[in-house]
Amino acid sequence: MSHIYDIVIIGGGPAGLSAGLYASRAKLDVLVIEKEKFGGQAATTAELENYPGSIENCTGPALVERMRKQAEEFGTTFSKDEIVEVDFFDDIKILKGRKEEYRSKAVIIATGAEYRLAGFKNEIELRGRGVSYCATCDADFFEGLDVAVIGGGDSAITEALYLTKFAETVTIIHRRDSLRAAKSLQEKAFNNPKIKFIWDTVVEEAKGDEILESLVLRNVKTGEISELAVNGVFVFVGLEPKSELFKGKVEMDDRGYILTDRNMKTNVEGVFAAGDVVQKSLRQVITAAADGAVAAVAAEEYINEKFNK
């Protein structure tokens, strides 16, 4: 009979790492499975000014690496694998990965969310050749060049500010006439001489043979078409939950976000969810970490009641 874990956590971002830490401190047998890079989106975030205590040049990669090491020190184990099928029907949950099969008394889903496509022509074709979704990953490729940012929320403005460290100019393209970002971020952006704004506008097409050369723009109020010469464009227009694997397995809303109660319990006994994959009003590192802690404690209580009578 294969090994049965107390808790298997699917996803190694802040929610999964926090859950691993709390569950391991409770002396549970915990495995975190991550198919890509540990840390999730936080690992691609340049600065985390709004995470409590991160006041001395705290970067996303540095923070999540500390989280991972801390969980590991308390006994959390880690696996790089992709879960392709889940069976939550019985008391012992079965997770089938590309490498191996895992069995567990409880499962915490912490798969997060991914960047939404803007939907302009050639977006996919020029991805990685001028079209990017991660300023931290790609900003240095555009040193001394002109770039654009699509979006007007916190992520868009934070990444635009980061890009000014490398790019010659950063043009923020927003479909509305005002930003949705926090006022403190707006103030920084408006006061940065490298940042320009194009309001009431969407990108219709990315143009370029091998690499991005320009963007075709359309004013949503006047219909006027224009073209902006840029070497790169960074897209920050929202997130999509990474929940496809769990459709029909746990209850979700119409956008694919997993529904939980205040203790991060799904509608399936022994299955919990935490972080950006959950229906919620705020998706930040701090809320993901809090979700993970709550889910781990709830899972511990479930295991004690179900298996340790």
TrEMBL record:
Disulfide bond among keywords: yes
GO MF assignments: thioredoxin-disulfide reductase (NADPH) activity
GO BP terms: removal of superoxide radicals
Sequence intervals crossing the membrane: none
This protein's UniProt keywords: Disulfide bond, FAD, Flavoprotein, NADP, Oxidoreductase, Redox-active center
Cofactor annotation: FAD
A Pfam family per the record: Pyr_redox_2
Domain FAD/NAD(P)-binding: 5-292
Annotated InterPro entries: FAD/NAD-bd_sf, FAD/NAD-binding_dom, Ferredoxin-NADP_redctase_2, Pyr_nucl-diS_OxRdtase_2_AS, Thioredox_Rdtase
Cofactor annotation comment: Binds 1 FAD per subunit.
Entry superkingdom: Bacteria
EC number, as in UniProt: 1.8.1.9
Cellular component, GO annotation: cytoplasm
PANTHER family the UniProt entry points to: THIOREDOXIN REDUCTASE 1-RELATED-RELATED (PTHR48105)
Subunit annotation: Homodimer.
Recorded family membership: Belongs to the class-II pyridine nucleotide-disulfide oxidoreductase family.
Protein name: Thioredoxin reductase
